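Q: How do we represent a protein-ligand complex in a form that can be generated token by token?
A: Start from the inputs.
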Amino acid sequence: MTKKLVIAIDGPAASGKSTLAQALADDLDYLYFDTGVLYRAVTYAALEGGVDTRDGQAVTQLAEEAVIDVEPTDGGNGTDFRVLLNGKDITGSLRTPEVDAHVSVVAAYRGVRQALNEQQRRIGMRGGVVMVGRDIGTVVLPEADLKIFLDASVEERARRRFEELRDQGSQISLEAIAESIQQRDKIDAERDIAPLKPANDSRLIESDGLDIDGVLAEAKALVAKKLQDA
Ligand code: CDP
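Then emit the structure tokens for the protein with cytidine-5'-diphosphate bound:
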């Protein structure tokens, strides 16, 4: 039987991690798990509950008490999923500019990360999973079989996110998106706990000038090599 790999994909905001991970999971018939939604769900809970995101203790308590479920909606490999917070479907509320503006502050608290790490490891250790985030290869699943760090220039990432949001009817400007992405990257990379950085044994994919098929081809070549060596 072919070995079921644990694949970690990390990288800065809007570098195309989710798109790559979904395509890869589809191709391999693996589970796709986007850990960013957990941090987004806690952020949403704070904003909705009137909790000041600068209050680390209150936000940590929220993260510890919140019941966050990520459920596949296609009954298959989980490439389409919905996120439930205490039983309520909040999938459509996780990628708003407001959540974007607060999520990196929330994700920097040690207590929040501790509360969410357990769930991520439980899912990751099953194997046959493509897990996406900032610290998957470094902290959550350091034993992952394959670690990819997906990067692209700020300009490229802002342009992609702009097109995605515009297609969803958003009016937000390219400049505002670039600003928000840079702000998040700075907080994510400079925090003390589990900062955004490539794992020592990660493989870098630079996606400027590559479309999804190009990025997927590079990733699939890395997977094929791993499966051959396994
Ligand atoms: O999709 P995008 O790259 O814009 O963001 P995301 O993956 O949904 O992550 C949102 C935020 O959650 C990041 O900016 C981080 O602050 C935080 N995060 C994290 O700290 N660790 C993870 N493993 C995943 C996300």
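The chain has a mean pLDDT of 94. Residues 212-229 form the longest helix (18 residues).
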